[in-house]
Write a structure and sequence with these properties.
563 residues; alpha+beta; Rossmann fold; Tachylectin-2, Chain A; 34 strands; 19% helix
Length: 563
């Protein structure tokens, strides 16, 4: 068993198992809810004690009013046609977000009955079900139905009713999740785990992720990242609750205004859908008629002896001092790292070969006059390599390159620095990008951006260990970020004038768009805090569309940009 969820399946706390009740309107659950039940079964700290379903466990009995009038169906013909086109055009994407049959899970626990209270899918519970739920004394009720969370459930669970919310938590639940973000041209799409009731009362956000909106004609394409990013939401928060207790969990709660539990029935009439589709179809036709799109190349820039570092001063005059290096014709250079060793300064980076269609790692010596030696390949693997995070520890030089295609975070040691490297071990069995090591106050720290279970669902995790090749402990503040604008690392941690800075890259609206700097204000085994202090926009350089890595060593600063 390997993957991101394995980090949250074992609790070391000496406490009774959490008792979970699932409430659903069908055995077919959304992907996040189905994953939650699977993880609960695999965990050592939670157990599913009952499930509540309307009617029989094999089907639904919806009120006829939920379908709508014939006139409404005519007014929404365009919407229905667009949804049907979506299902036919992208069957693979539909499979990723399709409901999961959980009948086998439901068959292993007592099934309690419910009934529909209205045409919006709200559930009501007979007296015998309410009595049975009270007798079960659930710690958490997991609400898996698309309708609103019933008020009758909220006082029954010790730690409230939990529900997945696709969309901004402050917005009512939508009958067409992930569509308004595309329709309105929003940069970000959200998914959250909400807490209804519990010791704090009201409605709160337990955790929330912001992903880049997938702009297209089809809603399903924008459902993938939010839905799959939420797969570990429930088990992670249950793990926190069991291992750290309610008081710690409650510290991160964000209160929401009344009305969050409402359901918004989307009423997109034909003219609304035509207004949405027409410009997008026109743009698609124009793009198809044009020449093939230009190929953008990453390139590296150097700046020497600036009065202030980039994270201190982002003035246009200072940015203009960076000298851009022409990329090789056969590919490009990106992800620069710097290391001074035995009086010589070395620049490591990714070299992507267009012919090989994958990256390898190269190094160049930075000469005293500021020139660079020719790139020399120092590490190549059957899979893509990038982000050569080089660092010194215990008198030796190590590297943690990006090896996400291998599904592992790998550690290498210099056998003959800088040209020969040998693999030491696998540090973590997860698919991650831009892993960034750092030695601080006698401990090893590792910032890891997990890319599971889907590309671009960034989750910034922090690990620490007393040995580089030893067991790594997940920091209790993890994930540090679930925001696509800040969760992906962008270079080594910088120590400057008694302060620590974490570079990150803003990947909305697309990968590697902007460069951020965060000052780390707390870093210890129990807590982590940071604040955003600087953002570098690629518009500072004419024609540049992205800037996403930063390195500094003495008077030399290096960035990369895409043009």
């Amino acid at each position: 068993m390997a993957g991101l969820e394995t980090l949250f399946l074992r609790s070391a706390a000496d406490a009774p198992k959490l008792r979970i009740v699932a409430v659903a309107d069908s055995p077919r659950l959304g992907r996040p809810e189905a994953a939650a039940l699977q993880h609960i079964q695999q965990s050592n700290f939670a157990t599913l004690v009952a499930v509540v379903l309307p009617g029989s466990a094999s089907g639904r009995s919806l009120p006829s009013g939920r379908v709508g009038s014939g006139q409404m169906l005519l007014h929404q013909l365009s919407l229905r046609a667009l949804e049907a086109w979506d299902r036919r055009a992208y069957p693979d994407i539909q499979a990723l977000i399709a409901p999961v049959d959980c009948s086998d899970v439901f068959a292993r626990v007592p099934n309690l009955s419910a009934e529909y209270a209205d045409s919006c899918g709200a559930l009501a519970f007979p007296a015998d079900t309410m009595a049975a739920l009270k007798g079960l004394s659930p710690d958490v009720i997991l609400h898996c139905a698309p309708g609103p969370v019933p008020d009758a459930l909220i006082p029954l669970a010790r730690f409230g009713v939990w529900s997945i919310h696709l969309g901004e938590p402050t917005d009512p639940r939508s009958s067409m999740p992930c569509f308004c973000e595309v329709r309105d041209g929003r940069l970000l799409s959200s998914v959250a785990l909400l807490l209804h009731g519990g010791p704090s009362g009201g409605v709160h956000v337990l955790t929330q992720a912001q992903v880049a909106t997938e702009h297209s004609l089809f809603r399903s394409k924008n459902c993938v990242r939010p839905s799959l990013t939420a797969l570990t939401f429930v088990i992670r928060k249950l793990h926190d609750l069991h291992q750290r207790g309610w008081e710690q969990l409650a510290q991160g709660l964000v209160a929401l205004p009344p009305g969050t539990n409402d359901v918004r029935r989307e009423n997109h009439r034909n003219r609304d859908i035509v207004k949405f589709m027409a410009p997008r179809i026109a743009r698609r036709a124009v793009n198809l008629a044009r020449r093939p799109p230009s190929t953008f190349h990453w390139r590296i820039a150097l700046r020497f002896a600036s009065a202030s570092k980039l994270f201190e001063d982002a003035s246009l005059a200072g940015l203009a001092a960076f000298r851009w290096i022409r990329p090789p014709q056969r590919g490009y250079l990106a992800d620069p790292f710097l290391l001074r060793r035995q009086g010589r300064l070395w620049l490591f980076c990714e070299e992507l070969s267009f012919s090989e269609r994958k990256g390898s790692l190269v190094c160049m010596e930075v000469r005293p006059d500021g020139g660079l030696s020719d790139p020399v390949r120092v590490l190549d693997r059957p899979y893509h390599l990038s982000y050569p995070a080089v660092f010194e520890a215990e008198g030796e030089v190590f590297m943690i390159p990006e090896t996400s295609q291998s599904g592992r975070v790998e550690l290498y040691r210099a056998v003959d620095f800088p040209h020969s490297w040998a693999k030491v071990c696998d540090l973590l069995p997860i698919r991650a990008v831009d892993s960034t090591p750092f030695v601080f106050e006698g401990r090893f720290w590792l910032f890891v951006t997990a890319m599971e279970p889907v590309e671009a669902s960034y989750q910034l995790l922090l690990f620490h260990s007393d040995r580089l090749d030893g067991a790594w402990t997940l920091h209790p503040s993890s994930p540090l970020s679930l925001d696509v604008r800040y969760a992906r690392s962008a270079g080594a941690i910088v120590s400057h004038d008694g302060k620590l800075y974490r570079p990150s890259q803003d990947c909305a609206p697309y990968y590697g768009h902007k460069l951020n700097f965060h000052e780390i204000t707390r870093l210890d085994p129990r807590g982590y805090q940071e604040r955003l202090v600087q953002t570098i926009d690629p518009d500072a350089w004419p024609g540049m569309r992205g800037v996403h890595t930063y390195a500094v060593c003495g008077d030399l600063e290096v960035i990369d940009g895409q043009k």
